Each structure stands twice: as structure tokens, then as C-alpha cells.
Amino acid sequence: MQNLKNWFKSGSPWIWLNAAAVSTSLIMVFGLLSLIAVRGMGFFWPADIVETDYTDKYAQQVRLIGEIWESESVSANQLRENGYSIPEELDEVTRYLIKTGNRDLLGADFKVAVALGLTEFRFPEELMKVERREWGNLYGRLVSVKENGSVVAQGPGAWDELRARLERVLLIHDEIGRIEKKDIGSINYSLEKLRLTERRYELDDALTAQREAELADKRKQLQAEYEELQARLVTLYQDIARDSLSAQIQDDRVVDVPLSKVVEVTLPNAMSVTQKLATYLRNLWTFVSDEPREANTEGGIFPAIFGTVMMVLIMAIMVTPLGVVAAVYLREYARQGPLIRLIRIAVNNLAGVPSIVYGVFGLGFFVYFLGSNIDQALYPEALPAPTFGTPGIMWASLTLAILTLPVVIVATEEGLSRIPSSIREGSLALGATKFETLWRTIIPMASPAIMTGLILAIARAAGEVAPLMLVGVVKLAPSLPLDGNAPFLHLDRKFMHLGFHIYDVGFQSPNVEAARPLVYATSFLLVLVIVSLNLTAIGIRNHLREKYRALES
After folding, report:
1. CB neighbours of 320 closer than 8 A, spacing ≥ 6?
2. CA–CA separation, 508 vs 432, rounded Å?
3. CB-based contacts of 413, cutoff 8 Å, min separation 6
4. With 80 as the cut, is the pLDDT of residue 33 above it?
């Protein structure tokens, strides 16, 4: 008994308890990340396509072609209550959710099937998966390849012809996208700038005949470029609409699918492991580099990745000087007393304010007050259409900078307080002013603490969603905040965000089952983005810490 008391007094049990708590926390975190990664990243693996016959509870027999999405064991009594004929000796029955696709033809993407009504699963190699730009996937068998409605290939040789024509169509599609978004978009942007310039001249009563003629010449030149590009588009749309494929779906109907609506055609059942791995990596790259489509349930999420990273970088640029200046004043210049203690209490309390409150503040102060006044002072030619008087990435970044400001202030103050007073006194004794001491010695030595505050700010800001819904984030942004049109960085534009994308796909999607894997994949990608930003900041902090370690000692 005495030995047990001595063991408790030594503190060993608390060390082991702390180790167990830390280990449990790490296991839970890595377990959660592993679950998200498996559920999300596994979605991009080309699954085999199954074919089977199914007799439903109404004794109607149908053929099913698609991917086995998931399976579960269901109580037999529950199925009996829903009208299924289940033998009495069975307590549980397997139920499958099969993604049959062909939503425009069958009315739904999925079919629920009870195992007792299914025949054996078949995996014919000729079954194909057609990823379309609209209406999701199509599953079936290739019948023929057509050009302007006439069959050009069928049978065994149709696949080579289909791949060649699809490659041609995808190149034309890329060129159409480049012309519409980049070339014509740039012309429309320039025309709008000319309109605003003309309107400003009118407001300033400076629209002379010479200026009007110059604007007309520029507008005429841009209009000529637009008509040339439009003629090119007409030709490309005619070329891209030439080819199509015919496919036999599960109810034996033969349907025509224009290749202009096709993204990819694969034969998963005929693929080797190497081919599936190559397809998997290609699907991953498409997910992180392409734009979303089909109400964000198809395609990629590059605009959301870009918007998230850009917003965090702008927020970091804004919050760092504000936090450092406030901390330096409170620690180095302000006379310590009740007022400063009250300010510190207020700063600490601000860290606990709900984020949605900051969103309301940002909408009311930054957008409606500050943005509206900026529009009236600097952009009167655009009124009543707002420029900065509407939610945008600058106001979103500034709102998150205010939200994370207390973290940076507290961390910087802690760093300043750890610097020995002898360093300050030595610098002043050598003739340096107080500002020179702060700028050249104190702040550089406190930079690791500043980076710690910035790391905490990034970790919180990157995952915030509630305030962004009020001050700039949207479901689908027509253009990125950074492009090739002067001034290149457009801080007034709305943007996409990974956190809001997760909310939108998970809770606002018209096709919840199909979108569920994308929620996991986007969540895992958001974690990777936050970890990458934090690791970058940690690397900078460690470099600064090593740089000033000798000076501190």
C-alpha cells in the first residue's frame, strides 16, 4: 500500500494518463482523417460495372447495369413491412444501392435492390461508362459511332474510331472554352471599361469630340475582334456537333449521345490494374484542376481551392501588420494600468465572439458603409451598379482578419514579453532610438512568436464558412479574382471557398447520394490545404527561431 502511495506521489500515473490521452487523441484524429481519405479518394477509382436481373417486390423483372455504390444488412421485418416477400427463416437481408446513371432516361441515378431478387452479378467487358457534361453518367453498350447521323463505325472497330473522334472533340471543346472565357471575356471587359470611361467623362463634363472619337475607334476595333472570334466559334460549334455515339442502355433502348456532351468514355471491366491506376490519377488531377459542373456535383473544384488559398493569403497580409502594431503598442509604448488591462481583457474576449457576428459586422461596416462610400468617391461612373459596395474577396479577407486579430495580438505580446530587457537596454546604451531598437532587434527576435500567431490565424480562418456567406463567397463564381485583365487582381469579385463548397454539395445538392463522396473528397482536400499553409508558416517560423537563437542566448 505504501508503495502505491509513493507511486502516486511520484507523479508517474499522471504522466502515463497524459500519454494515454494524447495517444487517444492522435488515434482519433488520424482515424477520422483516414475515414475521410478512404471515402473521398476511393471515389475516383474506376469501379467495375455490374449487370444483373432484378425482380422487385411487384414481381416485375428488370435488368440493372451500373456500379455497386454500397451494400448494407437490413432487418427482414423492416422489408416485410415495406411489401417485400421475405422467407420467415431470414432475419437479415442484404440490400444494394446500385448507381444505374442515365438520369435523363430513367428518372433517377440510383436503384435500391434486395439481394433475394437479384440474379448473379455479371461483369461483361463491353459495358462502358460515359461521363457526360450534363445528366451524369451513362452506362450501357456501344452500338455505333455516327457522323452527322450516319454510321461510320460499329462492331469491334467502333472503339478505336470513338476514341479518335472523342479526342478531336475534346480539343475543340478546349478551344471553344479558351475563346469564350479568355478572348471574348477580355473583349467584354475592355468594352465595359470603355463604357465606364465614357461615363466618367460625362460626369466630369469632359467628354470632348476628340475623346468621343477615340473611344468610338477603340470600340469599333474591339467589335471587329469580337465578330472575328464569333465567326470562329460558329465554325467550331458546327465541327463539335458532328459526331455522336449510339449506346444500348439497360432497358434495351438505343440512344444517341453527342460527343460534344461527353467528357470521357471508359471500359472499367476490361481495364488492367495499371490502366485503372492511370485513370485514377487522371481523375484526381481533373478533380483538383477542373471547374465544377452539374450544380457542383460533377467536375473539379479548382476555383474553390484558388479562392480559399487567395483569401487566406490576403487575410494574412492584412492581419499581420495590424496585430503586430497593436501588440507593440500595448507592450512597448502604452503605460501599463487599468485601461491597458481592460483593453487586454477586451482583446481576449473578442477571440470568443461567434464568427457569424463578425460576418454581420463585415456586411454592415465594410460592404454597406465603407464599400458604398468608396463607390461614390472613386467609382461614380459605375453607379448604381456597385463595385466595392457588394460582398467580395477583399471584404471577406478583411472580416477574417478582424476575426483572427486577437490571436495575433496575444501571440505577439507573449513573444515580446520573453525578450530580455537587457537587449533593449544594451541597444539604447549604444545610441539607438527606441524605434530603431524595436525595428532592428526586438521585432525580428519576436518574429517566431508572430509566426505562431499567424499559424493559429490561418488554421481558424481557412475553415470558417458562416461569415463568408455574408461577405463574398458564392456557390459558383463566373471568374477568378486573379486573371489577365488589368489590374489583374480584382479584390471586388466574389469567390468560391472549399468550406462553403462542402456545405453546398452536402446539404444543398439535388442529388445527395451522388454528391456524398465529393463531400469527403473536398473535406480531405481542405484539410490538406490548411496543413500545407500551416507547414509553410511553421517552416518560416523555425528558420527565424534558429536565426535568432544565438542572439537570445
Report:
1. 408, 450, 454
2. 61
3. 327, 330, 331
4. yes
Give residue 552's pLDDT.
52
Alpha-carbon 299 to chain mean position: 12
**Residues 347-397: tens digit of each pLDDT:** 888 888 888 999 999 999 999 999 999 989 888 888 888 889 899 999 999
Q: How far is CA 173 from CA 170, 256, 405, 527, in A?
A: 5, 19, 46, 33
- The end-to-end CA distance of the chain, in Å, is 47
Q: 290 vs 203, 293, 552, CA distance in Å?
A: 43, 9, 49
What is the full DSSP assignment across 85-147? Answer: ---TT-SEEEEEEEE---HHHHS-SEEEEEGGGB---B--TTEEEEEESSS-EEEEEEEEEEE
Give tens-digit pLDDT for 98-153. 898 888 888 888 888 888 888 889 999 999 999 998 888 899 999 999 988 899 98
DSSP-assigned states of every residue in 20-40: HHHHHHHHHHHHHHHHHHHHH
Residue 469 to residue 396: CA distance in whole angstroms:
9
Distances (CA, A) of 146 to 174, 247, 256, 257, 346: 22, 11, 9, 10, 72
Cβ contact 517:507 at 8 Å? no
Question: pLDDT of 84-101, one tens digit each?
Answer: 787 877 888 888 888 988
Please, what's the largest Cα pairwise distance for the chain? 104
Q: Could you give the CA distance from residue 514 to residue 509 in angstroms, rounded to a whole number?
A: 9
Give me 452's grid cell.
505562431
Helix (H, G, I), strand (E, B) or coil at 277: helix
Q: Which helix (H) or strand (E) holds 395?
A: helix 393-417
Peptide bond before residue 354 is cis, with ω within 30 degrees of 0:
no
Burial class for 23, CB neighbours closer than 10 Å (0-12, 13-18, 19+): exposed
CA angle, corner 346, sides to 343 and 352, nearest 5?
155
For 37-74, letters b (16+ CB in 10 Å) and e give bebbbebbebbebbbbebbeeeeeeeebbbbbbeeeeb
Nine cell digits for residue 230: 464569333
Nearest alpha carbon to residue 146 among 260, 244, 263, 253:
244
Query: What global pTM score does this model have?
Result: 0.87
Rounded CA gap, 253 and 249, in Å? 6
Amino acid at 156: P
Q: d(Cα 81, Cα 12) in Å, to the nearest integer?
A: 58
Listed residue (237, 241, 220, 233) closest to 183, CA to CA: 233
